[in-house]
Amino acid sequence: MKRLILPLLLITALLLAACGESEPEALAAAQPIEAGDSCHVCGMLISEHPGPKGEAFMEKQGEALKFCSTMDLFAFLKQPENETQVSHAYVHDIGVTPWGEPSDEAFIRAEEAWYVVGHDRRGAMGHTLASFAVEADAEAFREAHGGELVVFDEIDLDLLGRLGRGELGGDVDQGMGDMSGHD
To answer: What pLDDT, on a 0 to 100 scale, did the predictor assign at position 61?
Structure first.
């Protein structure tokens, strides 16, 4: 009997260990922004507005929730009821795409981006977060348009509130000039 218990325990342990190992799930890719897509937060038509946009995927959901600005994306992401249910999110890399009409090919993971807040460029809802894949591009944008550099984990509801109230600088009237392309 004792001879059977040890091998059975070893087999059980191996089977349990194997059950815990699984292939990591592939993240859903960013989806194209279509002409009729509306913002999940404000309902505005996304393609009618300048600046970087965003997309979020919730756990166990295959379709993207789309946003007309990075400001609306983060207002959604940082709500306590949403934070624990979000799988991943995307933003436009403004370092490689025009501000006026960001390209669907320029989406990057929101968690990996660099952001400039309080700059003078206008997005769909006024102040927005300029998003970049490369820190040097974000720094060059900040030097040209003002603001401050932040990373994903530094963005919270307090920062978004200050940005929305215009407390972080960014004279958006001056930023209305050239919205057709990036600098």
So the answer is: 79
The 10s digit of each residue's pLDDT in 81-118 is 999 999 999 999 999 999 999 999 999 999 999 999 99
- Alpha-carbon torsion angle 36, 40, 42, 48, nearest 10: -30
Can you give the pLDDT at residue 166? Answer: 87
Rounded CA-CA distance 90/137 in Å is 18
| Length reported for the chain | 183
| Backbone torsion region of residue 147, taken as left when φ is above 0, otherwise alpha when ψ lies between -120 and 50, otherwise beta | left
pLDDT for 23-63, tens place per residue? Answer: 456 889 999 999 999 999 999 999 999 999 999 999 977 89
Q: Which two tokens stand for residue 110?
A: 């929101």
Integer Cα distance of 44 and 68 in angstroms: 7
Between the CA of residue 144 and those of 9, 120, 159, what are the distances in Å? 66, 9, 21
40 in Cβ contact with 66 (< 8 Å): yes
